[in-house]
Design goal:
By secondary structure, the chain is an alpha/beta fold. The chain has helices at residues 3-20, 33-39, 51-62, 84-96, 107-123, 138-156, 161-164, 182-190, 211-220, 242-249, 307-314, 344-378, 404-421, 448-466; strands at 131-135, 173-177, 199-201, 225-230, 254-259, 284-288, 300-304, 383-385, 393-398, 427-431, 434-440. The structure holds pyridoxal-5'-phosphate.
């Protein structure tokens, strides 16, 4: 074997060995950031080294600080399982060194994105003529949607924001649900719309906008208007009332963007698609590949119904890259970056690995497992799931019979205990002023047995910390 083949084979072997024992690996990192920082501390190497030795050193140094996010009982944040088909594709993409910028320079990377984009629109049942930018995740996809919205609603108001900026532009009314994701505020900030001037629509117990309140606020909105709605609230999985929002926006100079980082995938499953009804009437959507679709990190999609507005907001003109016609896809016209990872390959491979029915079964299966976990926990007298289990997210209050401040402290103790036990990884969050445990069932590897083990582990840990 050549040195190169041996090196790449070793990288693949390390990856496979890691994944092969992931089910038995404690569901936590074993070292803290401070410990890991010390392990990686040292001066700039004065001379170059041998790639094979560097790989071994890196793997040995990193090991204690890895979090087993691809494990079957990892329920932190909303993290997909990095399906092997996508991982293998990404390994090859790295070796190829392709840069998904321009169709003429990198024809394969551009073409596979075009195909993967068509498949995404089909699976999500969104307008087939929409444009799809491949970004790092829903954070950037929210930004792309907001930027396209800003340009288009100001253009209709006679203002060219791409040329003239926001200084002196007509004000944009921005409307969000009160339980919008933090990254939506980030997108507003990046787009110059301000995180602090959005009008917040009151939400119901599940965190969804109350339709009548949204209608009232939208009816009173003046000038160019941007509404950011949500498909899948982070704690509860709730969906905003899209038909009511879209109806209220009719006839206005308005743009509806949907943050559907994980929830948009409800549209791919027969038993869940009713939740996302009406959101096809939006103007743009943010959705992740690396959460519910199980592509490796990083991968998200910015989908825009109005390709011209999308391109105006993002396009990069250079003297040295050939322009694309309607027949060609230039990835860099649809995202903030020029050079970036060729994410289309991993998306293409992951969709092929599941197939349409496989995607539907996986999405729907995660939600069934979330309902099973909630059912188990709700049987305990002092444990309560604090919302309707709508999708794959479960927010749980422990110590419902206690003084709220005592229960808050016990929830943190419970999280610490679960980390020490290592059976499942769950995270804390705040919901309606109370500390909760959030469980996100979002990996294709999680089974019913894993859910039952998780329920047992959470209940046992709870009994241990409450005394
Ligand atoms: C995860 C998430 C985001 C941010 O997505 P990234 O992939 O982390 O960039 C935005 N909105 C919601 C609802 C999310 O769950």
């Amino acid at each position: 074997m050549s040195d190169l083949a041996a090196l790449f084979a070793r990288a693949a072997e390390i990856g496979a060995a890691y994944r092969d024992q992931i089910a038995e690996t404690p569901q936590r990192p074993d070292a803290t950031y401070v410990e890991m920082r010390a392990r990686f501390t040292g001066p700039v190497p004065e001379t170059g080294g041998d790639p094979a030795a560097i790989l071994e050193e890196m793997v040995a140094l990193a090991a204690p600080g890895l979090n087993a996010t691809t494990g079957p009982r990892f329920f932190g944040w909303v993290i997909g399982g990095s399906h092997p088909a996508g991982v293998a594709a990404d390994m090859v993409v790295s070796a190829w060194g392709q840069n998904a910028g321009n169709h003429a320079g990198m024809p394969a990377a551009s073409a596979v994105e075009a195909q993967a984009a068509d498949w995404l629109l089909d699976l999500l049942d969104l307008p087939r003529s929409a444009s799809v930018g491949f970004v790092t995740g829903a954070t950037m996809a929210n930004f792309v949607g907001v930027a396209a919205a800003r340009g288009e609603i100001l253009r209709r108001a006679g203002w060219n924001v791409e040329a003239d900026g926001l200084i002196g532009a007509p004000p944009i009314t921005v409307i969000l649900g009160d339980d919008a994701h933090a990254t939506v505020y980030n997108a507003l900030r990046l787009a110059g719309l301000g995180a602090g001037r959005a009008i917040l629509v009151p939400t119901d117990a599940n965190g969804a906008m109350i339709a009548s309140e949204a209608e009232k606020i939208i009816a009173a909105a003046e000038g160019p208007t941007l509404v950011v709605a949500q498909a899948g609230q982070l704690n509860t999985g709730a969906f905003d009332p899209f038909p009511a929002i879209a109806d209220a926006l009719a006839g206005k100079n308005a743009w509806l963007h949907v943050d559907g980082a994980f929830g948009l995938w409800a549209r791919a499953a027969d038993d869940l698609k009713h939740l996302a009804k009406g959101l096809e009437r939006a103007d743009s959507w943010a959705v992740d590949g690396h959460k519910q679709l199980q592509t490796p990190y990083d991968c998200g999609y910015a989908i825009v119904k109005h390709p011209d507005a999308h391109r105006r907001a993002m396009s990069i003109e250079t003297s040295y890259l050939p322009p694309s016609s309607a027949a060609e896809r230039d990835p860099s016209q649809l995202v903030p970056e020029l050079s970036r990872r060729a994410r289309g390959f991993a998306t293409w491979a992951t969709i092929k690995a599941f197939g349409r029915q496989g995607v539907a079964d996986m999405v729907s299966g995660c939600c069934a497992l979330a309902r099973r976990l909630a059912g188990r926990l709700n049987q305990e007298p002092d444990i309560r799931v604090v919302h309707d289990v709508i999708l794959n997210q479960v927010a749980i209050r422990f110590g419902t019979d206690r003084d709220p401040a005592d229960a808050d402290a016990l929830v943190d103790a419970l999280i610490a205990k679960t980390r020490a036990d290592g059976v499942c990884f769950v995270g804390p969050a705040n919901w309606r002023g109370e500390r909760i445990v959030r469980v996100s069932v979002s990996s294709y590897v999680t089974t019913q047995a894993d859910i039952d083990r998780t329920a047992d582990a959470l209940i046992a840990a709870w009994r241990a910390v409450r005394g």
